[in-house]
TrEMBL record, chain A:
Keywords: Acetylation, FAD, Flavoprotein, Mitochondrion, Oxidoreductase, Transit peptide. It comes from the Eukaryota. It comes from Adineta steineri. This is Probable D-lactate dehydrogenase, mitochondrial. InterPro entries: FAD-bd_oxidored_4_C, FAD-bd_PCMH, FAD-bd_PCMH-like_sf, FAD-bd_PCMH_sub2, FAD-linked_Oxase-like_C, Oxid_FAD_bind_N, Vanillyl_alc_oxidase_C-sub2. Belongs to the FAD-binding oxidoreductase/transferase type 4 family. It catalyses: (R)-lactate + 2 Fe(III)-[cytochrome c] = 2 Fe(II)-[cytochrome c] + pyruvate + 2 H(+). Pfam families: FAD-oxidase_C, FAD_binding_4. The lineage of its organism: Eukaryota, Metazoa, Spiralia, Gnathifera, Rotifera. Interacts with CSRP3. GO terms for molecular function: D-lactate dehydrogenase (cytochrome) activity; D-lactate dehydrogenase (NAD+) activity; FAD binding. Its cofactor is FAD. Its main location: mitochondrion.
UniProtKB/TrEMBL annotation, chain B:
Heterodimer of an alpha and a beta subunit. Heterodimer composed of ETFA and ETFB. Identified in a complex that contains ETFA, ETFB and ETFRF1. Interacts with ACADM. This is Electron transfer flavoprotein subunit beta. InterPro entries: ET-Flavoprotein_bsu_CS (IPR000049), ETF_a/b_N (IPR014730), ETF_b (IPR012255), ETF_beta_N (IPR033948), Rossmann-like_a/b/a_fold (IPR014729). Heterodimeric electron transfer flavoprotein that accepts electrons from several mitochondrial dehydrogenases, including acyl-CoA dehydrogenases, glutaryl-CoA and sarcosine dehydrogenase. It transfers the electrons to the main mitochondrial respiratory chain via ETF-ubiquinone oxidoreductase. Required for normal mitochondrial fatty acid oxidation and normal amino acid metabolism. ETFB binds an AMP molecule that probably has a purely structural role. The electron transfer flavoprotein serves as a specific electron acceptor for several dehydrogenases, including five acyl-CoA dehydrogenases, glutaryl-CoA and sarcosine dehydrogenase. It transfers the electrons to the main mitochondrial respiratory chain via ETF-ubiquinone oxidoreductase (ETF dehydrogenase). GO terms for cellular component: mitochondrial matrix. The keyword Electron transport applies. Its main location: mitochondrion. Coiled coil: none annotated. Belongs to the ETF beta-subunit/FixA family. The keyword Transport applies. GO terms for biological process: amino acid catabolic process; fatty acid beta-oxidation using acyl-CoA dehydrogenase. It comes from Adineta steineri.
Length: 521, 254
């Protein structure tokens, strides 16, 4: 898949290139080389460009220099150095974030932790493991594959576990296994003054504890603004003996949500409940050459044992049928399961594959299929302004509400998509009340991006009204700081600022993310 | 009549490990390094289990040759679905010098002893990349071979095997008993789960020595030295095509 990215150069970036904020970039490089070794420091243009952005639509902001840390000791010394010179420091795992968390709007040092990739210990009897921050989730699962255990948090990217801790990542199986918050047992963190702490006890690996403040969950989700995570002790879960996958199209979204609630309440060991709206199903049909019914569809997965999985499939079928699903296809055999879920696996690429000029078939409220030109769904003025086809990019929203509020959110989403003339498809982890709108956009079209921004704000505000959150999985990063204030209120944000002030008084840890401190840099 | 399958599994350095050459060039560092089942053998085991699930096979026997740690690899094969395991114990210097020909003789001996219909092996092991064992086993037993399999269909004591070859694929039909070696695209191996791992602890594992099988495992080759590939040199930029041509001439490349 080719994601052609065009990054706009923001004014601040241009200014930054013209002014030398720090003693000199060369001194910085020399000093950092003395700490981390010559081969571990780079200020070449391409390395800095790569480290200045993630996979979000946010324009890149380059750091002044990139350091590849090889150990916690490196990290501690580098942080001490940056603290002494008031230089911002931004931790970097795999650069796969979706909220601009790794951009360096104030320049500074990007601390790449990907070379800290050792799996320190795996304790199968205790169902836990300890890894350095740069280990990716796929590397961990591969390493433990013959223990019968898995680390089941699977965000779309093969992200680093340190990054997943820092953003409180989640995946498709949160409904059964939880998110990072429920699965991080202990963290090694380097604080803003270079000191190193363990958040759940110097050697802690107990499944539960009542000892002191819950520092572990303070650092899960802080996005590098309170400390730099260098090691994590994580819970592991048993690989299921038997897995049943099912696909069930429904006549409308309300029925799908009602079925979801019923399944959650049935006691069935549901591991995944994913939802695709009819536009997304249509895109997937095209991309993966499938022939799914173009209807709101649930993709389900149950984890159980050999002797009861079939019966669970039947119970799930009965439940879905009682909400008038059109059909219920299921399988336990790995190849067939993969086939059933193919649409869901490829949905992001399927969305991007939709281009200007391609056609979309939709079943309207009268259940009749009409074919419309994609371009008719986009703004007329855009077609007039730029005659040529631009490479499209995916912009993904991420709100999470109580499950019962989903139908109302989806209704609003579709209404706003139409009003703002945006092409968007809905895919969600309905078991958690979390859904994403995948918008196919042209990032160079400033006017379109403004409408995208408006859409995103409206969705987030409605989510808050319905007792939800402005970000279920992706984090606050650069773009959602105001929404965070809306979500928590001034007192809540103030508490966060007090903590930030206490742990990072110089505001050098990933400044400008999550919350804005009132210090000018 | 459902067939009986012998699957060979080798304990090799895990594919994710950064292999290091010993400073005295006598070998690679194996102490404290993660080992696991050779990935191509994982694929072979998976294929054997699928044949059992399809009721084409009635029994899958896993075999490994090496020191005591091979039993871990065999237990993994049992957890994935093999019925029983055979550990041919080879230790110390004998193991260091154990080469494909000797292993082929051991596998052939076990195949004859167990009277199996099919020997399934990985096409090669990722530590020595030899790609010889399957072929030599077939030669020793005078059995037909279908190597680099990407698809296997067995019916009525005949196997139809699609193989990966340069430029595409080729389909062979071989009469059983035969030797088939797995290529990457044959299947996607399953992961072991805890209940199976528990059950595997109770499955039978027999231990024997090369002498018990009447096989002489003496090596025929001597390893002279191990070296890392040369470090990559930095590139250079040229100003124009003329400079490119003269540089290429300088290096004797054109």
């Amino acid at each position: 898949m080719n994601l052609i990215k065009v990054r706009t150069t923001s004014i601040s970036n241009i200014l930054h290139k013209l002014t030398y904020r720090y003693a000199s970039s060369q001194t910085l490089v020399t000093d950092l080389k003395a700490i981390a070794g010559n081969e571990n420091v780079s200020n070449s243009a391409s390395v800095r460009e790569q480290h200045g952005h993630d996979e979000s639509y946010h324009a890149g902001h380059e750091p002044d220099v990139v350091v590849f840390a090889q150990s916690t000791d490196h990290v501690s010394k580098i942080v001490k150095y940056c603290a002494s010179k008031h230089i911002p420091i931004i931790p970097w795992g795999t650069g796969t974030g979706l909220e601009g968390g790794v951009t360096a709007p104030k320049g500074g040092v990007c601390l790449n932790l990907s070379r800290m990739d050792k799996i320190i210990s795996v304790n199968p009897d205790d169902f836990d493991c300890t890894v350095q921050a740069g280990v990716t989730r796929n590397a961990l699962n591969t390493f433990i594959r013959d223990t019968g255990l898995q680390f089941p948090i699977d965000p779309g990217a093969n992200a680093s576990l340190g990054g997943m801790c820092a953003t409180s990542a989640s995946g498709t199986m949160a409904v059964k296994y939880g998110t990072m918050r429920e699965n991080v047992m202990n963290l090694e963190v380097v604080l803003a003054d270079g000191s190193i702490i363990k958040t759940s006890g110097l050697k802690g690996r107990s499944r539960k504890t009542s000892a002191g403040y819950n520092l572990t969950n303070l650092f899960v989700g802080q996005e590098g603004t309170l400390g730099i995570i260098t090691e994590a002790t994580l819970k592991l879960h048993a690989t299921p003996e038997a897995v049943l996958a099912a696909v069930a199209p429904f006549k409308d979204f309300q029925s799908a949500v009602d079925a979801t609630v019923a399944i959650m309440q049935s006691g069935l060991p549901v591991a995944r409940i994913e939802f695709l709206d009819e536009k997304m199903v249509d895109a997937c049909n095209r991309f993966s050459k499938l022939s799914l019914d173009v209807l709101p569809t649930l993709f389900l997965e149950f984890h159980g044992s050999n002797n009861n999985i079939e019966m669970q499939g039947q119970l799930a079928e009965e439940t879905c049928k009682s909400f008038e699903c059109l059909k219920f296809d299921y399988a336990t055999e790995p190849n067939k399961r993969a086939d059933l879920w193919k649409a869901r696996h490829n949905l992001f690429y399927a969305a991007l594959a939709l281009k200007q000029g391609s056609k979309v078939s939709l079943r309207d409220h009268k259940n009749e299929i009409s074919t419309i030109l994609l371009s008719d769904m986009l703004t007329f003025s855009y077609r007039e302004k730029s005659g040529s086809v631009s490479p499209s990019e995916g912009y993904i929203t991420d709100v999470c509400v109580p499950i019962s509020a989903l139908p109302r959110m989806i209704y609003l989403t579709n209404k706003e998509l139409k009003r703002l003339e945006l092409l968007g498809m809905i895919a969600g982890h309905v078991g958690d009340g979390n859904f994403h709108v995948v918008l196919v956009v042209d990032p160079k079209n400033v006017e379109e991006m403004e409408r995208v921004h408006e859409f995103s704000m409206i969705l987030a505000k409605e989510s808050l009204d319905l007792h939800g959150t402005v970000t279920g999985e992706h984090g606050i990063g650069l773009g959602k700081k105001q929404l965070l204030i809306d979500e928590f209120g001034l007192q809540g944000i103030n508490t966060m600022k007090v903590i930030k002030e206490a742990l990072d008084p110089l505001n050098i840890l990933n400044p400008g993310k999550v919350i804005d401190m009132n210090k000018s840099f | 009549m459902a067939i009986r399958i012998l699957v060979g599994v080798k304990r090799a350095i895990d594919y994710a490990v950064k292999v290091q050459v010993k400073t005295d060039k006598s070998g690679v560092v194996t102490e404290g390094v993660k080992h696991s089942m050779n990935p191509f053998d994982e694929i072979a085991v998976e294929e054997a289990i699928r044949l059992k699930e399809k009721k084409v096979a009635q029994e899958v026997i896993a075999l490994s040759c090496g020191p005591a740690q091979c039993q871990e690899t065999l237990r993994t094969a049992l957890a994935l679905g093999a019925d029983r395991a055979i550990h041919v114990e080879v230790t110390g210097k004998d193991y260091e010098m154990l080469q494909p020909l000797a292993i082929s003789k051991l596998i052939a001996a076990v195949a004859k002893k167990e009277n199996v219909d099919l020997v399934l092996l990985g096409k090669l092991a990722i530590d020595d990349d030899s790609n010889q064992t399957g072929q030599m086993v077939a030669g020793l037993l005078s059995w037909p071979q279908a190597v680099f399999a990407s698809k296997v269909d067995i019916k009525d004591k005949t196997a139809e095997v699609m193989r990966e070859i340069d430029g595409g694929s080729e389909t062979l039909r071989v009469k059983l008993p035969a030797v088939i070696t797995s290529d990457l695209r044959l299947n996607q191996p399953r992961f072991a789960n805890l209940p199976s791992i528990q059950k595997a602890k109770k499955k039978p594992m027999a231990k024997m020595s090369p002498k018990d099988l009447g096989v002489d495992i003496k090596p025929h080759q001597e390893y002279l030295s191990y070296e890392e590939p040369p470090k990559r040199q930095g590139g250079g930029r040229v100003a124009n095509v003329d400079e490119l041509i003269s540089k290429l001439k300088e290096k004797g490349l054109i």
